[in-house]
Amino acid sequence: MADIRLEGVTKAYGSHRVHSDLNLAVNQGECFTLLGPSGCGKTVMLRLIAGFEAPDAGRVAIGGTVVYDAGGGVNIPPDRRGLGVVFQDYAVWPHMTVFQNVAYPLKIAGWNPEELKRRTLETIALVNMKGLENRLPSELSGGQQQRVALARALAARPSLMLLDEPLSNLDANLREEMRFEIKEIQGKLGVTVLYVTHDQEVALVISDRMAVMDGRGRIRQIGSPAEIYENPADAFVFGFMGVANFLPTRSDGGKLLAGGGAQPIPWPGPEGKAEAWTAAFRPSDIVISRPKPLPGAGCLSGVIRRASFLGAMMDYLIDVDGAKIRAVLETHEAMSRGLIFKEGESCAVTFLNLHWFDSGALKETAI
Amino acid sequence: MNTIGGKRRFGAAEIILLLSIAVLVVVVAVPVLLILVNAFFSGGSLTLADVSAAFRNRGAWAAAATFFRLAVTSFNGHDVFKVLGESDTYEALLNSLFIASGTTVGSTVVGTFFAWLVTRTDIPYKQLMKGMFLVPFMLPSFIGAMAWKMLLSPRAGYINRFFMDVFNLDGPVFNIYSYYGIILVEVMYLFPFVFIQVCGALERMDPTLEESARISGAGLFTITRKITIPLVLPSILSGALLIMLYSMAHFGTVAVLGIENGIFNIPTLIYQRIHESAGNFASIRTGTVLASVLVTAAAVIIWLQNRIQGRGRYQIIAGKSFRPMELKLRGLRYPLLVVCLAYIGFTIILPTVVIFLVGGLRTYGLSFTMENLSLDNYKFILFDYQVTRDAIWNSVVLGFGAALVTMFAGVMISYVIVKMRVRGKGLLEFLGMLPFSVPGSVIALGVILAWSGKYGVNLYNTVWIIFVAYIARYMAFSLKANSAALEQIHDSLVEAARASGATTWQALRDIVLPLVRPGMIAAFFLIFLPSLRELTVSIMLYAPTTRTIGVAIYTLNEDGETVMSAAMAGVALVIIVIGQIFINRITRKRSGS
Lengths: 367, 593
Description:
- Helix content of chain A is 26%, strand content 33%.
- Chain A has helices at 42-50, 98-108, 113-126, 142-154, 172-189, 200-206, 225-230, 235-240, 331-336, 359-364; strands at residues 4-13, 16-26, 31-35, 57-62, 65-69, 74-75, 83-86, 160-164, 192-197, 209-213, 219-223, 245-252, 255-258, 277-281, 286-289, 300-309, 313-320, 323-330, 346-351, 355-358.
- In chain B, helix 6 (141-152) packs across helix 8 (179-190) and helix 6 runs parallel beside helix 12 (252-258).
- The longest helix of chain B has 34 residues, at 87-120.
- The chains are: A alpha+beta, B mainly alpha.
- The interface between A and B is medium-sized, with 32 and 24 residues.
């Protein structure tokens, strides 16, 4: 089993800096996800760990062994780093059968034929590809090819697996199925997994811990999926983890007023100092109700601008003094409580979970 | 992937890069450079001995200064213009230009017309005719020129004689020993370059482009003028430029048909000068100046072509074949079919038949009756005549060897250019462009300058000098086929092998090589087949025992052994056709599986 340590890693292509002075620790046996928008350098990071690219500065250690050290002149090539890699485009060798693909790492390692055959068949069975051993990749679907790639990476039972967006070329159903399977295999074999993706749903399902990176390759937050979802470190992380509503406020005589109007915010305000504050919340954290007789009684009033019926859910766009926010609630709940609104009707909103962010900082980190 | 382990030590990547650069420098760059140096610097005064003496006595700066001073004093742009101003060089330049222009215009008209006919009209037997129009690609044009000489030479040509006898004419109907004769023959054998480009463009063109014009109310004439022609124009121009380049540097046809009336173009004048003066300084000088003109013209043409293709790429969007709109020819359907068949019969079948018939005659000039025809000449050439037997053997061995070496060198060089990221790759990319823009006669002259003992190695009069020249001449084919194959191999396939524990070499052996093999096989045959009928290079380099098939045919013809040369040409045609059928078998089997 192996852990990963990156210390002060810097990588640039020409004048374009992808990473500067980056530090990261992945623990032994965990499934760790690097989550970030496309082009943020997360794939580069994976390639630095695999050894396909060399950092300009810094150290990389896998399982306590330094595999790269710019200062000490260490650079162990990828074939001696003992890892399994799964690529976004599968990279299954088209001239080899399923069996030959999966057996290749064992063949290179010089396994004896019986052991090799046993292990290869076992691994093919592990990814539910039994019976397709003699097929060529051209005779397989995308999902099956990705299973072959997974089996190939697992064949030699590496202590560390690197997966680069392995599911992004699959259709939605298959993607859902495969992410559970990867998680299950990881648990069964106890291998350390570094998983790179831009899909926050996959990251939440699959990770023990995850790191959220911004567009410039900086790590904004590291934590368990629940921590990151519930307590985002900043507005970027909050925004990246799902659909976000932002309600700007302004302060007037010690009170916080919502949007451009005069309704005071009826909940405890933020702590700390900032020029202006923005309240953030997810569409599912909004509680919507018929207008209250007394305004200001623990809620804000707004006007329904758009009402969309999505089947299981109702989706409302609400105008609160010039700020547009989106709210969703389950259709049957809306029916039973008489909350089916028409466009132009007034309503009252309150929030289950509210995050406060500095408005100035928010503009800077606009997604 | 080369950065792996290559950062500090001298790794596999650097070895491959240096080897690739070395191959291109030795085989292509040095010969071309020697031509330019010989053309622009008067040979004697720019000697490296002075430079190295300066280096020994006063160091690197002094050496550089000496080199620079010598270069400046010996630079002789004036001489270049003097050579170009001599009446026969000047005339050869104009002839090359005139013949190339005529050939280009003629081939473009013919090629575009037939391409349109077989892709966009309802003319019958389209597929068959498309195949027939590509046959001239296989036929060596100098053999075609010989056939036309037999048919249309002013006094002895069979067609001319027939008309003079039957209609009692005083002179020939057509004299093939003329500019128009040369242009006509070149058009017959070069038009497929335009034909194939335009066919491809017309077939790939998205029909919705034309359909939307039709829906907008445009008539067929307007659509053709405003939509179709502008979309196909880049392909037409690119094919035309290819023909221009080919024709300017073309040796065979002009050599066979022009020399009788003293019509020389650049390559034939280079050949004549080098050949008759046994390599004295003045003739080499004239040769290098003319070769420099060819290289420059070729570079300009290649540059223009790249620009046109770059611009044309986005215009014809679809990569798949569609079913394009077909024009109903109605009453013209069968008359146009007759035109096509007549063209094919006249340009392909007639010359081929004449070659085989003349090859069977006892003496040239006899009529084709049964008692005059026999297989004796063919027997003699294949079994008894040492010169032709040697020539066939030489061509097969040379072609095989050159194809093999060029195939492997091409894979290596393309691998560096397409796949590796190493410092110094830019130099290789530049060198890799060279083989595409150096015509055959230039290579031959450069090889003479480089390998005649002046720099320590003397290959002159051996088969090796032809071997080296073939490698330089066909490197472009190999680079093209292999880069195309390598571009299909995604980097992650190799990286997956590295991650599986394979070293650079193991990944090359297990993943890259098996996947480029089709490209390599294609490269091999793309070189082997044309080399069997090569003339331009080997005619400048052959010695009495190192004749190739092309040289044997050409020299027999020159010596007046017309029936023997025709028989030899017939043998060559049979070999070429068998080879072509063999290749088609292989490629079809591959695409079928």
